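Hi U.,

Before I forget, here's the chain from the pilot set. I'm dumping it here mostly so it's searchable later in email.
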Amino acid sequence: MDGFRDKTATAQRDDSTASLRRIGVIDIPDAAGSSFDHGIFDPKSRRVFIAHTARSTVEVIDPLAGSHTITLSGFPGCAGAVADDGDILVTNRGAASVAWLDAETLATRAVYETGARPNGAAIVKRLALGIVACIGDEREQPTLQAFRLGGGRTTSLDLPGRPRWCVTDAVAERLFLCIREPSMILVASLPDLSPLAQWRLPSGGAHGLDIDHARGRLYAACDDAELVEVDSQSGKVTNVWPIAGPPDVTFFNPVTGNVHVAIGEPGVVETINPVSGRRLQTVTAADAHTTVLVPPDRLYVISAVHGGVLVLADS
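Structure:
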């Protein structure tokens, strides 16, 4: 990863008991003073796609080179990106639409209309299925929508509150969606979005979400400054950990077993290993609330203060 800027300036003591080890910074054009949202790593293209919300662009990063590749325009108020085997979905919150991209050619394959303010999303390539959770507005209530990539029927489910992030199970039979208030994980079947369950959480403001497929555990980071572990079969709460503040993006790393929670204020990443109980806190920067997990051992923290991507080693 020779493309990193300021390796020596950003390096901390190599003491993983204190924090995640800082590797360097990847510059992103026009990042200073800007704002970003969800990003994702695509294993097929080996690229990272980051929603640059303030510029209505998608930033593409090459992790191997440690450098910014290209800026893709035309994604109004983009709120996030998700990937599956070379297919990318980008939610355009400013245009009530979702864009379907080819991760290798970087071409936009199609743009689909959605409900107002699309937010969390998921994609299942083998089912040719895209899913988007829409916040709604004064005219539309929150909805969860599923559509066939390439065209076809759209299915919609009315939601009991504002949706946040969502994930699917390993076999893509169920979707798990965080609802802010009442704070819960809503469970729906795929591909038809039939409602299956509403699992209330003991902490308010369910927000970031990821899943450990091997252990069958969901990790919901909540605005009330707690990370809640939930059994993905029964909905039983199996653990709760305090965190430093209201969270946003949450990733589980199946290689290290760590859960990483980005917290924009005060600007830290909380790292919790649910099995060992080990906890770390890594100082990042103010408003660095979004991250990307790059397997096997890199956590990208998107930080306007750093002018791009702060790269941490999850080892």
